[in-house]
Amino acid sequence: MDFLYNINVQFYILSYLVGGIPFGLLLAKLFTGQDIREAGSGSIGATNVLRVLKETNPVLAKKLAIATVVLDALKGIVLLLVGKFLGLSIETLWAIAIFAVIGHCYSPYLKFEGGKGVATGAGVLFVMLPFETLIAFVTWFVVGKVLKISSLSSLLALCALILSSFILHPDLEGIKTHAPIFIIAFLIVYKHIPNIIRLFQGKESKVV
């Protein structure tokens, strides 16, 4: 068990545990008493918070959805900033980013169920690749405004981030590979498979 005294391992465990905190579920239960897993898409993310709660209280639903996005993003951001402050290597920082997203998608507090990883993924990628993440955000915002389909805007934003990362950083600093980005992207896309199926079927719900 000596490996548990290794600071890198400690951060990996911590990032998974913090990443797994289901803020959307907790906020909805705290302020409305509702379990958002039992309605809408069943997800614990901000989109489902908005979709489920707006039926009874649209103003509160919007506030809680925004709070969910911010808190889910901060789960990874805070850990990475602390890691940077402590001088952890770039390889370790990327691993922390991945574990935070895994924690959100497969929360240890929800029997390894969880969200789709978009907000947490955006948070960690903003720290690691700020310019690419800004490009992704603009893509997400424009597509979301025009098509009003959350899953499609998230997936297209992810594509924009990947493409821009190869243009702006052909060789990622310190690791010389885009593998961490692809791992995070795979997790997000995998969690979106039901949405992708509904998109092809023309049944994916819009956020209005």
From TrEMBL:
Signal peptide: none annotated. It is found in: Cell membrane. The gene is plsY. Belongs to the PlsY family. It comes from Sulfurospirillum halorespirans DSM 13726. Keywords: Acyltransferase, Cell membrane, Lipid biosynthesis, Lipid metabolism, Membrane, Phospholipid biosynthesis, Phospholipid metabolism, Transferase, Transmembrane, Transmembrane helix. This is Glycerol-3-phosphate acyltransferase. One of its GO terms (biological process) is phospholipid biosynthetic process. The keyword Transmembrane helix applies. The chain crosses the membrane at residues 12-31, 122-143, 149-168, 180-200. The keyword Cell division does not apply. InterPro entries: G3P_acylTferase_PlsY. Pfam families: G3P_acyltransf (PF02660).
